[in-house]
């Protein structure tokens, strides 16, 4: 049996997504900036996807900008705000367990003379509005706190954080990386009260290489990519029409059955956690997001467990996919910041579900882990 439980890294595209992308690639392949009918046809796909995303996010079509990935959207949000607001101040607040595309951008800005406050969450991986309020200053220009943590599945109170920031100073920009929330829960910019919000296609059964940044009308943001002035001059470059078409289709399909999908993932997650934690010295670190389970298998290094499971046809992760490409301090920073012991940090596996997973698959994972644990622990002790 093959079981894919690394959906927080990427998801398998819907067949309908592949079909519409193939149609754009082979038939409606015009440049959307061209004035002839091929260009008009290509532009129509962009308009349709903007309509889909704006309907889900509860915003205007012209408040959405397509990018190449969530990393670019986050860079555009953080650097674009820093450049636009630097006369007001150079203080930026981010949580310490953000995705690398936020943290590394913040470190870059530190070197450029900006003052960055990294807020450490509580032991559940949550940043409180009170903690954000305490860090606010007269020279604060931006606050960025992710909706759902990509390793734990902890859900931050973004709505309350945004309200606290705006109550202090309405001109401070609030950004949230909603990459792991989009497609797993309601993501309404109206309800959240944020100025900037990042979403990505390949986490919701869409293609890689396409994402979006919501920019509230009137928000000061400097472009970070210059060229032909596409997307109202905010993000130049020929639009990835096949990717955009696929993104819109994936968003439509995901949100059409959101409630049923969430209920299914929650049930599977609960079944998985219950079954795995019946084993000795196995602990659950998971947050409330329906699709992410963070489990520590004390006495077995995560890489060893990961490859042992792979040998049995089970695909999981030892943390964020992006963080594995960058040399860093041994072990997950996220797990360290919530206070896990080094033994638990070194033995943690992330299981991330999608609507396509089944009870049969979850039971196979539970059975396989229960068989592997005694053997792997014996090997480690030996």
Note the topology.
Layout (H helix, E strand, L loop, with lengths): L2 E2 L10 H12 L10 H21 L6 E4 L2 H16 L5 E5 L4 H12 L3 E5 L9 H7 L4 E5 L13 H11 L4 E5 L11 H4 L3 E5 L10 E5 L25 H16 L1 H19 L5 E3 L7 E6 L4 H10 L2 E2 L17 H5 L4 H4 L2 E5 L6 H23 L1
Helix pairs in contact: 1-8, 2-8, 3-4, 5-6, 9-13, 10-13
Q: What is the strand content?
A: 5-15%
Write the element-wise H/E pattern from the N-terminal end onward: EHHEHEHEHEHEHEEHHEEHEHHEH
Q: Termini, distance in Å?
A: 30 Å
Please state the overall shape, judged from the principal axes of the Cα atoms: globular
Q: Helix coverage percent of residues?
A: 40-55%
- Radius of gyration, Cα only, in angstroms? 21 Å
Structural overview:
With 382 residues, the chain is α/β, with parallel strands linked by helices. It is 42% helix and 14% strand. It contains 13 helices and twelve strands. Strand 9 and strand 10 (292-297) form a beta hairpin. It starts with a strand and ends with a helix.
Question: What features would you highlight for this structure?
Answer:
382 residues, alpha/beta, seven-stranded mixed sheet, 42% helix
Short description:
By secondary structure, the chain is of the alpha/beta class. It has helices spanning 15-26, 37-57, 70-85, 100-111, 129-135, 158-168, 189-192, 241-256, 258-276, 302-311, 333-337, 342-345, 359-381; strands spanning 3-4, 64-67, 91-95, 115-119, 140-144, 173-177, 196-200, 211-215, 282-284, 292-297, 314-315, 348-352. A seven-stranded mixed β-sheet has the order 2-8-7-6-5-3-4, with helices on both faces.
């Amino acid at each position: 049996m093959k079981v894919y439980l690394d959906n927080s890294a990427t998801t398998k595209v819907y067949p309908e997504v592949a079909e519409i992308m193939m149609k754009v690639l082979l038939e409606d392949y015009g440049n959307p900036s061209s004035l002839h009918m091929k260009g008009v046809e290509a532009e129509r796909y962009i308009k349709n996807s903007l309509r889909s995303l704006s309907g889900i996010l509860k915003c205007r079509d012209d408040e959405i900008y397509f990018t190449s990935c969530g990393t670019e959207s986050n860079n555009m949000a953080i650097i674009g705000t820093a450049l636009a607001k630097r006369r007001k101040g150079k203080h930026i607040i981010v949580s310490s367990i953000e995705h690398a595309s936020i943290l590394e951008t913040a470190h870059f800005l530190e070197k450029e003379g900006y003052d960055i406050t990294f807020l450490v969450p509580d032991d559940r991986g949550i940043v409180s509005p009170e903690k954000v309020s305490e860090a606010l200053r007269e020279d604060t220009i931006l606050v960025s706190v992710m909706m759902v943590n990509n390793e734990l599945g902890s859900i931050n109170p973004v709505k309350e954080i945004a309200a606290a920031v705006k109550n202090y100073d309405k001109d401070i920009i609030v950004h949230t990386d909603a990459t792991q929330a989009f497609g797993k829960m309601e993501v309404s910019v109206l309800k959240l009260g944020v100025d900037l919000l990042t979403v990505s296609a390949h986490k919701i059964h869409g293609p890689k290489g396409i994402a979006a940044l919501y920019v509230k009308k009137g928000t000061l943001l400097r472009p970070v990519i210059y060229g032909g002035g596409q997307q109202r001059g905010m993000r130049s470059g020929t639009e990835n029409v096949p990717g955009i078409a696929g993104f819109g289709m994936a968003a439509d399909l995901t949100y059409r059955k959101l409630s049923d999908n969430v209920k299914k993932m929650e049930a599977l997650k609960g079944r998985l956690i219950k079954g795995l934690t019946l084993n000795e010295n196995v602990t659950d670190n998971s947050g409330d997001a329906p699709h992410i389970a963070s489990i520590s298998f004390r006495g077995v290094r995560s890489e060893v467990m990961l490859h042992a499971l792979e040998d049995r046809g089970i695909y999981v992760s030892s943390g964020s996919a992006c963080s594995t490409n960058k040399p860093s301090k041994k072990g997950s920073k996220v797990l360290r910041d919530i206070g896990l012991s080094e033994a638990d940090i070194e033995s943690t596996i992330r299981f991330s579900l999608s609507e396509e997973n089944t009870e049969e698959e979850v039971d196979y994972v539970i059975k396989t882990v229960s068989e592997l644990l005694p053997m792997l622990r014996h090997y480690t002790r030996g």
